[in-house]
């Protein structure tokens, strides 16, 4: 496995694959990797000849009071994990390598689907994601890119701008990876105190209970209110509990497939999760 820190170095490492017309799979990450990330690499290995993983903590997707400075940076550990699952190239650029020294005058905004959920709670976040992912797609030029479905709204945003801008690649969503107790894996789970780590699976438990309630005929509004009450009682500060169609449109009744979304803070740690519920 190679590690490249410059765009020029990465291009040189990928040139043989491009010349041989081999398929390139790409997994963008911010590092501090867990099994969810490694599952993305495993899926990429199944489909692609060469797999590139980027490790870059992107400053422009963090808000002024968010955790950019404290975000865990664990490159050596990440490299060991990636080597074990067969990653071919790690791309670990600096902020200067990605953004240069001149002011950035170009932005990428995906409207409508970024107006609520995490877009409302984290203004500018998805613009920052869209810019860095576009830059990484231009640098790596993959055939396939792999993203986790835990960040469902982010996945929808990326699929949208790839389609709108005619980017020549396919975006692949991969199912949420969970701990044995159901907690969705996230690099930010490491921020949880031992006590809060015990409480955190309540998010997934409330989603599964909501699924049963919906399929038993409980009204959607009542189900959402029950989730919020359960989480609040357990000590969470709820950002939102929402229901959307799989295309992220608002819905008032369970008359088609629904995706239930939760964002809530436990202590200082913000956790997100979602569950798709089939309409039977």
Automatic annotation (TrEMBL):
Keywords: ATP-binding, Cytoplasm, Ligase, Nucleotide-binding, Pantothenate biosynthesis. (R)-pantoate binds at residues 61, 154. One of its GO terms (molecular function) is pantoate-beta-alanine ligase activity. It comes from the Bacteria. InterPro entries: Cyt_trans-like (IPR004821), Pantoate_ligase (IPR003721), Pantoate_ligase_C (IPR042176), Rossmann-like_a/b/a_fold (IPR014729). Its EC number is 6.3.2.1. SUPFAM superfamilies: Nucleotidylyl transferase. GO terms for cellular component: cytosol. Homodimer. NCBIfam families: cyt_tran_rel, panC. The reaction proceeds by a bi uni uni bi ping pong mechanism. This is Pantothenate synthetase.
